[in-house]
Write a structure and sequence with these properties.
Elements (H helix, E strand, L loop, with lengths): L1 H17 L9 E9 L5 E10 L10 E7 L8 E6 L1 E2 L5 E7 L4 E10 L4 E9 L4
Antiparallel strand pairs: 1-2, 2-6, 3-4, 3-7, 5-6, 7-8
């Protein structure tokens, strides 16, 4: 009885220390698309998250979206905003306000059961 309890306690300690391996085995992939909103320099972005190995949609993840302008480090950064879940599994929406048009590094940060950071290079141009 004591040996079984000690074994279970040891397994629990190992799982807590190293994690169960479930979330750690997930590598996220993101498709990011942004379209101009009604105000200048404002963009509505859709993020589709999936497991890069299985292709399964990643739901239940806390997602924040921010952006930096690589050509002007530390001069133009967009404060991260929390994305809201969309109507389809693994889909999230966020509105970002840029400081100017041009090339931006859009950063998608994931927290919760899956932790990751995905950076996408995107070009934002004036609405035509």
């Amino acid at each position: 009885m004591i040996a079984a309890r000690d074994l279970l306690l040891s397994i629990l300690i190992v799982m807590v220390w190293f994690g169960t391996g479930l979330a750690a085995d997930v590598k996220a992939r993101a498709e990011v698309s942004c379209s101009a909103a009604s105000k200048p320099l404002q963009y509505d972005c859709t993020i589709k998250l999936s497991d890069s190995r299985s292709g399964a949609a990643l739901g239940g993840v806390d997602v924040t979206v921010g952006a930096d302008m690589p050509s002007m480090p530390m001069a133009h950064n967009v404060k991260p905003v929390k994305a809201i879940p969309g109507s389809e599994p693994g889909t999230y929406r966020a509105r970002i306000d840029l400081e100017m048009h041009g090339d931006w590094a859009v950063k998608v940060d994931l927290a919760g059961p899956v932790r990751d950071r995905i950076v996408k290079s995107m070009r934002f141009e004036p609405k035509r």
